[in-house]
Amino acid sequence: MAEDSFERFYTATYHRLLRQLAVVTGDRGDAEDVLQEAYGRAALRWERLADYEAPEAWVRRVALHLAADRARRARRRAAALLRLRPPAPVAELSVEGSTWPVPCGACRLGSGR
After folding, report:
1. Does residue 75 lie within any of the structural domains?
2. 36: domain range?
3. Above 70 in pLDDT, residue 107?
4. What DSSP letter does each residue of 1-33 carry, written as one string?
5. Does a structural domain hold residue 22?
6. pTM of the predicted model as reported, rounded to 2 decimal places
7. Does any domain span residue 31?
8. How many other β-carbons are positioned within 10 Å of the β-carbon of residue 38?
């Protein structure tokens, strides 16, 4: 019975919550991920949540917290990447067509001596 109740709740609220979270996250895929995690947590607690006046609000709040956690992790990751940025690029060196002076030892290596 509780399982049927959760399935009805899920079906009735999923698309509405997905639209709300897509606006918050800016990405439908991220919204789907956090919403599925929130519904999973709700399913584990459904016997208690089913008696709440607004279980949809509970799922929304959990999903919003998960989305905020993801955003914070992404910001920290981006900041770390900026701190660890690669060194400035170095131009490739080429001997062919170069007017650079070639040391005598290198000339001998190329002449087969």
Report:
1. yes
2. 2-83
3. no
4. -HHHHHHHHHHHHHHHHHHHHHHHHS-HHHHHH
5. yes
6. 0.69
7. yes
8. 22
